[in-house]
From TrEMBL:
NCBIfam families: pepN_proteo. Its EC number is 3.4.11.2. Residues 547-861 form the Peptidase M1 alanyl aminopeptidase C-terminal domain. Residues 232-442 form the Peptidase M1 membrane alanine aminopeptidase domain. Keywords: Aminopeptidase, Hydrolase, Metal-binding, Metalloprotease, Protease, Zinc. SUPFAM superfamilies: Leukotriene A4 hydrolase N-terminal domain, Metalloproteases ('zincins'), catalytic domain. It comes from the Bacteria. It comes from Sphingomonas ginsenosidivorax. Coiled coil: none annotated. Transmembrane segments: none annotated. GO terms for molecular function: alanyl aminopeptidase activity; metallopeptidase activity; zinc ion binding. This is Aminopeptidase N. It catalyses: Release of an N-terminal amino acid, Xaa-|-Yaa- from a peptide, amide or arylamide. Xaa is preferably Ala, but may be most amino acids including Pro (slow action). When a terminal hydrophobic residue is followed by a prolyl residue, the two may be released as an intact Xaa-Pro dipeptide.
Amino acid sequence: MLDIQTSLAQPIVIRREAYAAPDWLVPEVALDFALAAAATRVRARLSVTRNGAHDRPLRLDGAGQRPLSVSVDGVAVNDWRIEGEELVVPLTGAAHVIETEVEIAPERNTQLMGLYASGGNLCTQCEAEGFRRITFFPDRPDVLSVYSVRMTADKALYPVLLANGDPVESGELADGRHWATWHDPFPKPSYLFALVAGNLAVNRGSFTTMSGRVVELGIWVRESDLAKTDHALHALKLAMEWDERVYGREYDLDVFNIVAVDDFNFGAMENKGLNIFNSRYILADPDTATDYDYDAIAAVVAHEYFHNWSGNRITCRDWFQLSLKEGFTVYRDQGFSADQGSRAVKRIEDVRGLRAAQFPEDAGPLAHPVRPESYQEISNFYTATIYNKGAELIRMMASILGPETFRAATDLYFDRFDGTAATCEDYVACMEEAGDVDLTQFRLWYAQAGTPRVSATLDSVGSRATLTLEQHVPPTPGQSDKAPMVLPLRVKLFGAESGTALTEERLVLFDRARDTIIFEGLAERPVLSINRGFSAPVIVESDRSAADLAFLSAHDDDPFARYEAMQQLMLDTLVASAVHGRADHEGVIAAVANTLDDAGLDPAFVAEAVLLPSESFIGDQMAVVDPDAIFRAREALRRDLGRRLDAQWRRALAQGVAPYAYTPEAKGFRRLRSVALGYIAASGAADAAELAFAQFEAADNMTDRQGALTTLVSGTSDLRIAALDIFYNRYSDNALVLDKWFQVQALASRDDTGAVVAALTRHPDFTLANPNRARALVGAFSANQRAFHAADGSGYRLLADQLIALDRLNPQTAAKLLPPLGRRRRFDAARSGLMRAELERIVATPGLSKDVFEQASKSLE
Ligand code: PHE
Ligand code: ZN
């Protein structure tokens, strides 16, 4: 018998270059579900056609189940066999009808892939390879089929039966059961299949498309959540209108349904005509959801809706092309969100997210190109690189083309590849053709992993300045030598004395290892503003002085560049302090004061600009991360900022106080108030805890309440205990808000956070079975730099224990918790050794999933 360790030691690696077209196509499929939580019968009728001249049998993916029956052209056969997880059926002709029947157990499905039970309802998740857990099928995205679905279920338990496409017929059966049929006229890959059976209430709306078709919209939730669905429904209508206006994309079915479920591995899923969402990205009211939640709901609703074109009408040829749909769709949802409020603030948030998640990924053992070359488990590649760096690639191409040409290029792409399974190369070729540009070298962005580093030096003599640029792409696993990439850098010069622009903004396409750019006719000493708007997802190292950064933070006319200058100034200050113990805070204090006093600025922008870089981002700038030194340096700067600008923070705290409204202005004031509260607490002011507790109690919305609670839990006042209890008791029946209760404690800056989190893993409301809850406690804890990196290794052990336990239930979600342990090489030898020991313990766990094995073994290399 093969033992698990040996079989895991030779993982099956799927390679991009091994792609071959499918042997058999499935133009049509009819599915018949006899639904029940304990045992569901699935009968599938596939019309298959031989693809090309070959004599190979039909191979259908399954997931360990055996068919109850197999028939070919209406006749039961027994010459089939199971090879690994595949059902192999010998066929002689060019076209056949294959029927199979299986029985599956949704209520025992803890992986939340395939058909599973959540909150008493039944639902599906098929991307990437979940359909094979429902029935035997060529479960790959380049096999497109027209689906007809019939569902039968107990009517009392499952009064609502939904599937992809449009409803066709429904009826009653004698034994308390009922049935419904749905038909989706658009050929789709199996990963877009969905059904839902449940006891659900609906918030209905309608949207009239640009050609005048009326689409019936429905947001389906449990009855008691119905009042929390208006925001999502409104966002859906805005997204439908936006995609028509900005990309010319119209919806194509008569109905569009969204179902919210509590147990979900990711954020949401774009199944054709039947999106299924993690309830955290649907449910909102002011009392339970923060501004952040509201924004995220609109963004995810838009994202999944936009997939109808960038994902469903045009899908991916294979999973190596995942960024074709995800990078582009993130770019589209970012554009949508930017149009709902402040463009600058949205860009700042997106860049902050990229730096928090993608840059570390790109610098660690799990780094991979936007178009990967190989994988063991595709679920591990739903990453910040595929999604967020992928979106940056689209953004760079849009910058190179300019807005009108970019639109012509996306029109060409949608037109040419509609109804097909396409590749990243197809997309780039459309950009190239419509833009009349050569993107040969740009394609390296899809192939080379790692964040490019650019050094920029500006030397000026008299009226002439020379900008010297150098680029370097660091080695990543499997890629030791990198070629120079095309970096579109927006550059502008400002006069150091006048504070006004000396040049127009230029888009420099920097595409060599080293280059120089000359500026002539400068009337005064220039200050360099570079990578404005974060035009390229790179790390810029410039030798700009603290004075020049402070100057830009006050005078640059690109709000993103102002933010960036301030961040750089803060980073330089914090790194100097953490590494060399030099703590000169004056430059930052003056720049922050200046920003707070600038009445012309949007409060949302001010809140972003005055926030210090995160502990982990500071660590990313250091040769060896020292979490304790970083914490001390950051707290010292926070305390000084708090004390010296006490009057400004108190003024900000009093600003814009008004009854709750979800508007960009009101959101901006709330954000700034919570930042101000944090600084007042950091100053050590005697009244800080009372101020926070007063805000906690008086709040008429979750943003203010959670903001106050966040401040309280990192303080020493006993009011923290009172606030946590009040919060818990008030929301003990609301899972999404309880997640916040766990999360706030896991993120707290306290000496005892590790012990608190360990105790919370034994709290009666803690469960690993719900991915949101697992992430709220364990995921948040491992993002808490000081607590997770406790010198005794207790944080690493806690994560590994939880991860191993979760892997038995839900490998996908377990694997997503692993990356923090993979950053071990960034830390001192002692911590690195402790992290390594935990990774080794994980890899040695009997019965480990291939999801976790891939992530852990790569992290050990
Ligand atoms: N395709 C989904 C999205 O990004 C993400 C997802 C992947 C959801 C896998 C579930 C499972 O929109
Ligand atoms: Zn997506």
